[in-house]
Amino acid sequence: MKFTATQIAGILEGQVEGNPEAAVHKLSKIEEGEAGSLTFLANPKYTSFIYTTKASITIVNKDFVPENAVSTTLIKVDDAYKSFSKLLEYYNEVKNNKVGIEQPHFMSSTARYGEGFYLGAFSYLGENVEIGDNVKIYPNVYIGDNVKIGNNVSVFAGAKIYSESIIGNHCVVHSGAIIGADGFGFTPNEKGEYSKVPQTGNVILEDHVDIGAGTTIDRATLGATILRKGVKLDNQIQIAHNVEIGEHTAIAAQTGIAGSTKIGKNCLIGGQVGIVGHITIGDRVKIQAQSGIGRNVKDDEVLQGSPALNYGDYNKSYVHFKNLPKIVNRISELEKNIDNENS
What we know:
This protein is α/β, with parallel strands linked by helices.
């Protein structure tokens, strides 16, 4: 796909300075720009590169005034970073705007889908599946019986959505994600053997939820595992059965959340965090990477460590942690001196 400076300026409501017919077909960093590429300048640290970049078009802020000659065509906007992000969204919409049904595939005769539907090859749609408008199902996707998917949803290659799952509008499920697998429910008997507890619930993703590649979300034992509106999950996260995650909470990669834990709104959880089951985490909580959470957490707490401490207390304590060898040596010396004085 090629876009001219005039077309891009129209999308961004910007002003062209240079060749309005300059055309681009790819993106680049400003320091690595080459002919036919589009870049942007938002951070003043990179200003020097605008005089050497070979990018055909560069998005800049309206207040940018070149001090030397530039060969790249400029598009001036209110906020270069936001405008570039907007352009990326537009580019993705155009690039991913596939429609039609590829062969081979399996679709149950009871499955229903809306307008603007795309179904990639080797995908499977089970009984009574309901799919809204402008949904894109990429190749090798499995969608089980009685799944409901809203409007403007993308399910990327190789994702698996088990039966009874419900996905809202404007959601994204990336490759390899598994939604609705059984929760880890087993009960031991007197012989130490384990019997499976049937997992009869489902998974519900509300609107504007993003699920990263390789992330797994288990169905509930009873009821539902629920991700509320605007939740964002990174790659390779484990969400156990009956977990509930509040609106607009974001969680980084390799975090694991055990069963029946409730997490509030607008939380930020770093990578490799472990959270035990059956606890409640409040709203606006921040948890630093590699922390272990084993207790209820109040609103607005900031935590770090394993087991996690208040963030400020952790940093104060860490000063002493790293000095422990010196402290031990000092104590040993003091003990020797006391022994010598007493002998």
